[in-house]
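quick one, two chains, predict together pls
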Amino acid sequence: MDKTKTPFSKDTKLAELLTEDRRLLQLLPRFGIGLGFGDRSVDYVCQMNHVNTELFLMICYIYSNSDFRPGKEELRHINMSDLLSYLKASHRYYLDERFPHIEAHLQNIIEACGQKYGPMLSHFYKEYKQEVMRHIQYYEEEVVFPYIEALFNGQPTGSYKIDEFEHNHTNIQDVLDDMMNILLKYLPGDILPKERIEISLDIMELSDDLNRHSLIEERILIPYVELLENTQS
Amino acid sequence: MKNRVIICSTSEMVSIGLAEIIDSMAQFDVVLRLDSPEHLSEKTLATDANLLIIDPTLLGYQNKDFLLNLGKEYPHLVVVALVTSYVDHLHLMPYSAVIEMNDSRQKIINKLNELGTDNTSKRNDDVELSKREIDVLVAVAKGMMNKEIADLMNISIHTVISHRKNITRKTGIKSVSGLTVYALLNNLIDEGELI
């Protein structure tokens, strides 16, 4: 691992790591790490919460440095069920918290748009939400993750292979960016400007988060599953 | 932004030599060298060129029509003649400038600088959609596929894709559903026209 690119280690204080990159704060609930960790080290807090320290750090690295790629040897040591529960927790965060939050704001904007632009904006969002649900809930959680779990436990897996994985997050992000462009650039300026700025900031944050999420899938999940497939075939 | 130049000449010697002179100029970049005017329009679009230097003999008798059509399609495109053999001066009228075989390096540089192709004050073009792009946008918004749009507009799929790239670059919108909302907001289509 390139040490220059990984400014923190398992002995770094968790609090220090969070001041280094405040986006890492949102990872804590997904790992089930509670607040009140005081001045304890990353390793200590992880162990206290039964979290795999290596995996936690790997994900932190990807969050704060988009060029980071774990090596094969590091991948071998991660714990698959921890990784899956992390990914599922991220999904819950997007579907149960972020999207409903954005949707609630958007609803106000749609109402303020009136008959002229309201319905099409509402249609645009509904279509988008369906696509998000399809990918995250019906595809990843009902097809991909069960496959990985079966593979991991040495059970029969059917015909699915990980190289069929749909890299659909790009599309999910594209539409999210489009939504932001529409809100900022193209809707008439006098419709709820304050709310539009606020929701755009939320969208930027979510888009960035989704970007990291797909990096985690591409650089940890998929290579790991490939390793698993190769040892079993 | 630099001027983007296409050189079109059958003589590789001439075209490489000219490219060398032009590339030495800070405000100019040769983006493509061609030996025939085939698919010139599409290539202009694909490279986003704003200056075409072409040997008029390559265009034969359709000279004027060709330039006229090109001018309609790319209003910002400046066309310069590269004269390698005798050409009647009447044929050179439609060109913005004429480069001759025995022109010195400095003379060529001066001629190009005098064209006033200032790509920095560049065309609204970078912001506003062209007529063709709007046609493509409307078709995309109505749910048409690239192949269908190509057939409808009588252009190649490649050109449709180039237009779509430019639309995305100008509007910042990538998805079909986003482009549909854009088209509706800008009154380019009615809700009724959507399937």
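Chain A has a mean pLDDT of 89.
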